[in-house]
């Protein structure tokens, strides 16, 4: 089994779409570990604030299949196939890590946003502080400690998901 980490984000009907994304991931992968939910400003465009979190799951599915499943989940929850990169989202599911795999195809892993976006790194560091970045070598906790926290503002929010109560740290 391989541990995968997936970033979830939404800035359109955020509560509904984040819950729907968690439900879809749970239905496909079974038990999930989830970070808190954070509210963050849109990055790369002017838009409504996002809800973001990271979920971890175990899978024996090949990488390409996981990528296809995540895209299908996005489409099932209102994402347009030709959606622009920096635009509002009903549901955005990004595979951040697939075990310690480093690759360029079918997508770049580890995903670059792990090192550059607080809305990815903080929840990932919260969920797996001792996990080492497969390229950088530092742990997620070390990466978060070194991150310029003034560059992107995040705020943890109370959030309830039927399958579990998300941690409030």
CATH third-tier fold name: Alpha-Beta Plaits
Order of helices and strands: EHEEEHEHHHEEE
Round the Cα radius of gyration to an integer and report it.
15 Å
Into which percentage range does the β-strand content fall? 15-25%
Question: Termini, distance in Å?
Answer: 29 Å
The outline comes out as: globular
Which secondary-structure class do the elements indicate? alpha+beta
Helix content: 25-40%
Return the average pLDDT rounded to an integer: 90
Low-confidence stretches: none
Largest sheet: 6 strands, antiparallel
CATH class: Alpha Beta
User: Please, how many helices?
Assistant: 5
Number of strands: 8
Under CATH, the homologous superfamily reads 7,8-Dihydro-6-hydroxymethylpterin-pyrophosphokinase HPPK
Count of separate structural domains: 1
Second CATH tier, the architecture: 2-Layer Sandwich
What features would you describe in this structure?
The chain has helices at residues 14-29, 63-76, 113-116, 118-127, 140-146, and strands at 2-10, 33-34, 37-40, 50-59, 92-98, 154-157, 160-161, 164-165. It is α+β, with helices and mostly antiparallel strands and 169 residues long. The protein has a single domain (2-156), classed as 2-Layer Sandwich (Alpha-Beta Plaits), CATH 3.30.70.560. Strands 1, 2, 3, 4, 5 and 6 form a 6-stranded antiparallel sheet that branches. A two-stranded antiparallel sheet has the order 7-8. Strand 7 (160-161) and strand 8 (164-165) form a beta hairpin. It is globular and about 35 Å long. The mean pLDDT is 90.
């Amino acid at each position: 089994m391989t541990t995968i980490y997936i970033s979830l984000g939404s800035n359109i009907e955020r509560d509904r779409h984040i819950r729907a994304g968690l439900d879809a991931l749970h239905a496909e992968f079974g038990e999930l570990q989830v970070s808190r939910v954070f509210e963050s400003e849109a990055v790369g465009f002017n838009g409504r604030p996002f809800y973001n979190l990271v979920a971890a799951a175990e899978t024996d599915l090949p990488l390409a299949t996981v990528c296809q499943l995540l895209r299908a989940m996005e489409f099932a929850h209102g994402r347009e196939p030709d959606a622009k990169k920096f635009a509002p989202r009903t549901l955005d599911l990004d595979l951040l890590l697939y075990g310690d795999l480093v690759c360029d195809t079918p997508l770049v892993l580890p995903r670059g946003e792990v090192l550059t976006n607080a809305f990815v790194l903080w929840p990932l560091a919260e969920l797996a502080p001792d996990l080492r970045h497969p390229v950088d070598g530092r742990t997620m906790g070390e990466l978060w400690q070194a991150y310029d926290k003034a560059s992107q503002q995040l705020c943890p929010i109370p959030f309830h998901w039927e399958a579990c109560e998300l941690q409030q740290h």
